[in-house]
């Protein structure tokens, strides 16, 4: 190796080593320190055990939201179908079912509507960007004695193509996904 | 004179008889016509049904879409909806589903618009039209009525069935169900096109 080539190689190597050292120092400094107040444990970590579930219907007077009854019913019926599809429960009881009173290990699922945008299928298909139908609910798992076990917000939407009621199908699938994770 | 009168009388008698014989066929026809009219009126009066029954049975509504909510019926199936004295019946192919009047908790109707060209094939066709022609096709829509029937099963479990019918038909079905004794409460109309938060 020629002396000139050797000196070039050494200078390039030293520059590379220096850059690596600077990068490591910066990345160590950029590490977030321990936060002042501890964050609550993520809700996904919580697991529930239940062999049966009862879906309570959301009543018209529960919130001030005025949601069309077909949207409420479609959400309820779609969720019954999706809960059965999860295969997590021996029984999926409907709201008011008298057999649920004797079911052991029962968890009660309640959907509390939080926001609703009616949307428009025509507007969606003409503009693509406007007219989305969305429904946001708080899902609440509780025990038979009324103790709230878990709460989570879920949103169902239909953005581009499809009828407005497809938002309820989307919502039901997402709620069933949450149920699969926690039970 | 006596001889004359005796000669004239047979002549007059024959004339009267002739007039009677001439009038007999039209008079007979008249009597026959009156008899026919009277008989027809009596027959129609006899055939008339007794007082209108309280329970109404309408003609069936074909091509109704059951969106969801009927036992043993797949979602988004088309069939025939009928209002029977015992309740509501939906028939599609060999499948039949009933909702009895006594089990109905509430009935809602609402209007929606549906695209004239829709579904997966329609959407693909609209997307294939060049220069945004699909968007123009999307402007064409028609109004439909949505019928929502809330009912409970034998265990007290809550169910809801949603049907999509032609304009004005959902209201007709609701009116017939109410006339047959179905329960209905007063409803609040949902506002359009605004996001709502409690």
List the helices and strands and how they pair.
The complex is a heterodimer of chains A (183) and B (198).
Chain A: H1 3-29, E1 52-56, H2 69-86, E2 91-93, E3 106-117, H3 121-127, E4 133-142, E5 148-158, H4 166-182
Parallel strand pairs in A: 1-2, 1-3
Antiparallel strand pairs in A: 3-4, 4-5
Helix pairs in contact in A: 2-4
Chain B: H1 2-47, E1 61-68, E2 77-84, E3 87-92, E4 95-100, E5 104-115, H2 119-128, H3 133-138, E6 141-152, E7 158-166, H4 169-179
Antiparallel strand pairs in B: 1-2, 1-7, 2-3, 3-4, 5-6, 6-7
Protein architecture, described:
The complex is a heterodimer of chains A (183) and B (198). Chain A has 183 residues and is α/β, with parallel strands linked by helices. Chain A has four helices and five strands, in the order H-E-H-E-E-H-E-E-H. Chain A folds into two domains: 1-34; 48-182, Double Stranded RNA Binding Domain (2-Layer Sandwich). In chain A, strands 2-1-3-4-5 form a five-stranded mixed beta sheet. In chain A, strand 4 (133-142) and strand 5 form a beta hairpin. Chain A is elongated and about 95 Å long. Chain B has two domains: 1-48; 61-179, PH-domain like. Chain B has helices at residues 2-47, 119-128, 133-138, 169-179, and strands spanning 61-68, 77-84, 87-92, 95-100, 104-115, 141-152, 158-166. Chain B has a seven-stranded antiparallel beta sheet, covered by helices on one side. In chain B, a hairpin with an 8-residue loop joins strand 1 (61-68) and strand 2 (77-84). The longest helix of chain B is centred in the N-terminal third of the chain and has 46 residues, at 2-47. Mean pLDDT of chain B is 80; it is low at 48-53. The chains are: A alpha/beta (183), B alpha+beta (198). Chain A binds chain B through residues 57, 60, 63-70, 72-74, 76-78, 81, 93-99, 113-122, 125-127, 161, 163-165, and chain B through 67-69, 75, 108, 110, 112-115, 118, 123, 126, 134-135, 138-139, 141, 146, 148, 150, 152-153, 155-162, 187-198.
């Amino acid at each position: 190796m020629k002396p000139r080539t050797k000196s070039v190689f050494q200078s390039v190597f030293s520059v590379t080593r220096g850059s690596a050292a600077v990068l490591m120092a910066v990345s160590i400094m950029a590490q977030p320190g321990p936060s002042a107040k501890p964050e609550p444990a993520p809700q996904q970590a919580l697991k529930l055990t239940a062999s049966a579930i009862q879906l309570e219907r959301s009543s018209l007077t529960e919130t001030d939201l005025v949601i069309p009854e077909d949207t409420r019913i479609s959400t309820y019926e779609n969720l019954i179908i999706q809960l059965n599809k999860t295969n997590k429960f021996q029984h999926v009881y409907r709201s008011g079912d008298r057999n649920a009173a004797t079911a052991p290990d029962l968890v009660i699922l309640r959907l509390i509507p939080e926001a609703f945008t009616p949307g428009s299928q025509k507007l969606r298909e003409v503009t693509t960007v406007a007219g989305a139908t969305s429904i946001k609910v708080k899902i609440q798992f509780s025990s038979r004695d009324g103790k709230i076990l878990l709460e989570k917000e879920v949103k169902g939407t239909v953005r581009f193509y499809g009828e407005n009621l497809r938002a309820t199908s989307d919502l039901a699938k997402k709620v069933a996904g949450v149920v699969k994770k926690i039970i | 004179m006596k001889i004359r009168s005796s000669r004239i009388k047979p002549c007059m008698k024959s004339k009267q008889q002739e007039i009677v014989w001439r009038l007999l066929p039209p008079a007979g026809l008249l009597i026959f016509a009156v008899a026919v009219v009277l008989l027809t009126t009596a027959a129609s009066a006899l055939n008339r049904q007794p007082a209108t029954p309280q329970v109404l049975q309408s003609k069936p509504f074909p091509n109704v879409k059951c969106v969801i909510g009927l036992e043993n019926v797949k979602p988004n199936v088309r069939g025939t909806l009928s209002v029977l004295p015992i309740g509501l019946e939906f028939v599609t192919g060999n499948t039949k589903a009933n909702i009895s009047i006594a089990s109905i908790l509430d009935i809602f109707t609402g209007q929606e618009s549906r695209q004239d060209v829709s579904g997966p094939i329609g959407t693909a066709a609209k997307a294939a039209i060049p220069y945004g022609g699909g968007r123009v096709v999307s402007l064409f829509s028609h109004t439909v009525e949505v019928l929502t029937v809330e009912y409970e099963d034998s265990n007290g479990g809550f169910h809801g069935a949603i049907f999509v019918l032609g304009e004005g038909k959902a209201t007709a079905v609701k009116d017939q169900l109410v006339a047959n004794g179905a329960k209905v409460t007063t409803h609040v109309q949902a506002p359009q096109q605004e996001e709502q938060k409690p």
